[in-house]
Amino acid sequence: MLNLTIAEIAKITGAEPGPKTDVTVHALCSLEDAHEGGICYLTSLDKPDLLQHLPASALIVPEQAKGQTLPFAGALLYAKNPEWAFILLMKYVDAQTPKHSPGIHPTAVISASAKLGANVSVGAYTVIEDGVTVGDGTVIFPQCYLGKNVTVGRQCILYPQVVVREGCVLKDAVILQAGAKIGSDGFGFTFHDGRHQKIPQIGNVVLGNDVEVQANSCIDRAKISSTVIGDNTKIDNLVQVGHNVRVGMSTIMCAQVGVAGTTDIGNGVILAGQVGLAGHMKIGDRVQIGAQSGVISSIPAGQVYFGYPAMPQREAFKQQAMLRKLPELYKEFRAMKKQADEVKKLSFFGKLKKLLGF
Fold this sequence. Notes:
Layout: E1 4-5, H1 6-13, E2 16-17, E3 24-25, E4 27-28, E5 38-41, E6 58-62, E7 75-79, H2 82-95, E8 109-110, E9 115-116, E10 121-122, E11 127-128, E12 133-134, E13 139-140, E14 145-146, E15 151-152, E16 157-158, E17 163-164, E18 169-170, E19 175-176, E20 181-184, E21 189-192, E22 195-198, E23 204-207, E24 212-213, E25 218-220, E26 226-229, E27 234-235, E28 240-241, E29 246-247, E30 252-253, E31 258-259, E32 264-265, E33 270-271, E34 276-277, E35 282-283, E36 288-289, E37 294-295, E38 304-306, E39 311-312, H3 313-324, H4 326-344, H5 348-356
Parallel strand pairs: 4-5, 5-6, 6-7, 8-11, 9-12, 10-13, 11-14, 12-15, 13-16, 14-17, 15-18, 16-19, 17-20, 18-23, 19-24, 20-25, 23-26, 24-27, 25-28, 26-29, 27-30, 28-31, 29-32, 30-33, 31-34, 32-35, 33-36, 34-37, 36-38
Antiparallel strand pairs: 1-3, 2-7, 21-22, 38-39
């Protein structure tokens, strides 16, 4: 059970404690499920009335609140960024919670030629093939597979049933969530002699420092050379990255994104859920693409795109607004057509009278 004083929380988070320090915190909680003994945070002081009946024992608030009287009965801590202060507290609590058994499990199958660094943990039924190198402090959970000549850096975490195939490289502090598959063959075939013939996929995958790939996502090895994921890029669950794709630094790829082969994605790009990228194109730095968009051509840096086919967001929203008016426009069109049909049936003089308004 958590047991932290206000002074200890201030040291962990860098927040400045308020005058009330005789409080002990036993749990982290959100504003919605705040309870006695818990601590939560507030990013804005726009609605101070929310604090009047907040049952939490402690609250991290913006530093602008210093000197103000807030209707909160518990202890206050002042932070420049309350959310980040709370995240630091979460990191501390998370680090105190053991998630794995240290050491090498006796059922793990590890090649004699594999090289494991200091304080490496390997879980039950994991297989580590010839020529594998694992850096210091890395944790490999049960039922993982590292193929021949894989390189894993320092302080990585491979959760259960991760597969890293031969020759792939994970740099430092990489996290692979359960079921992630790194280095499966790219989807490469050529039609020859009336059949789809497999093209050997002899490249690898390189994951940069601080990359995280979440559950059941797949990153294909290159046909030749490398599929590359840049430092600090985060890939959500159920994402497919094709062969020879290159992704820059600090890019976000949300759930069910699909990237076809040989696509070049820049730095700081955001691909929302279910975005599909056709192959052989370039997505510039800091591009944002809205959910369920289909991208069929390159996008310059800094653009915000949406829709299928994806287009500048403002243009896409205008088209959506016009589509909503389509039933009304169709009704007007039918009325005009009916009137035109009636005019067609009139004689020449009848049409002339209609035109002149007689």
